[in-house]
């Protein structure tokens, strides 16, 4: 027997089965890499962080932090120093300038964040972020605009060192190649796509709410970590 494929090439079934087996082996190897890594990174607990912003290149207007049990540790609005919320951003996260006018600015919120993550119990825990580069750059910009005085050893460097981008990790896990864009040729996916892929219902959730996005990111982390155990967190 033989199989005809798209370009009209005929491949014997035995050879085709071998190709499929090799592809499956490569996929298993790729999955094992990321699953093993997540099992290590999540041992002993971890954090999930998310922000909402004034715009694509703007300041933080909502800051949320949860732990691995989905306990909400920080969840509050943040008053930006220089920027107003753009109409486009407001249409996405539904946070208005009026809603944040009496909120704290980024500095005390960030200091609360540092106190939580740097206790003796927590100081080695990973901080997971979906689209790490975007959130960290926005936090850093917000701190600079607000005149934050960094510690001698630059506390933000430690935050960057401990953070992990779930968006890039899910792209690697999902395995959709993109020869033109994205790190290591894997196509980045939106958080909603990643959550839906694991059967996590998002239809009735308030997406682009930083606490909700933390929760969805947590579920994506759990599903990647537990891939080989067959558990479903949807």
UniProtKB/TrEMBL annotation:
InterPro entries the record matches: Ribonucl_H (IPR013520), RNaseH-like_sf (IPR012337), RNaseH_sf (IPR036397)
Pfam families referenced in this protein's UniProt entry, alphabetically: RNase_T
Residues spanning the signal sequence: none
GO MF annotation, one: nucleic acid binding
Exonuclease domain location: 45-230
Protein name in the entry: Exonuclease domain-containing protein
Gene source species: uncultured prokaryote
Biological classification of the source: unclassified sequences, environmental samples
